[in-house]
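Justification of computing resources. Each target in the renewal requires a structure prediction run like the one illustrated here; the chain below, 295 residues long, is used simply to show the kind of job we budget for.
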Amino acid sequence: TKDRPSSANSGGEKTRIPTMLSMAFGQAPSSPILTYTGSMQGDIYCWRENQLLKIIAKAHAGPIFAMYTTLSDGFIVTGAKEPSSENSVVKLWDSEMNRCKPFTIEPHTLSAVADGAPPLASVCVKAVSRIRGSILVGLADNEIWMINERNGTSQPLMTGHGDGELWGLSVHPKEPQVIISASQDGSLRVWDANKKTQMKRLQCPAPAQSCAVAPNGRFVAVGLVNGQVLIVAMNLADAASQLKVAHKIRDRGKAINDVKFSPDGKVLAVGGQDCCVDLYNVTDPQALLRIGSCK
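Resulting structure tokens:
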């Protein structure tokens, strides 16, 4: 309960209790069952019934959204939102919350941000669980990761689009197992359908409404809800390369509902909610020329 006084462990003094976001039960070897709560400020409060025993200050640098107790050994996992990706968003504590092992997650390794797009949000853990030497982590952007407790490595189990509808979907013309999707969460993503994994990601400057891959497979056209069209360079041969905006145009002010390349790849058709279809010469993706319009 926010700002509700409760008795602390120092001579019955009153302490102000902040907003609590998560809770876990634990049992120290020499004490009855304890309750741990994670606060908005990143502190952990240790309780015996309604008695506050201690405060673990700055257990995390941000709000603690998730806590989980392992009944077999009493260890407790905490997950938080940290201001920096370098900080440990997940920590594994002993049953008395005296020692912890920190872990980091870096989900944006192959993610790029287009000019004008908001920066990628810092990692925010919303759920944690623990099983057989591994920690399962649910993130705010709809991803599930697994952390190996022994070596600290992490890998994604599931990734996906976040808020909004998904209108853009296109299959790579030369690599049929590669699928490109564009969503109103503002992201363009490249997937391997065989491995069921995300290969690359680009954060667009506005929600995306449509996408299409050029016949040569080297470029993706992305239509945004603000009327802008991005031409994105894509290099599948280099697994470490990021998606990069090669050119952008904005001749309309409403959402671009569809984009399509001509079979020879020389013309891009752009259709939007302003009841217009624009045709562009895309032989040079870095210098698009509008060659016609239909109203």
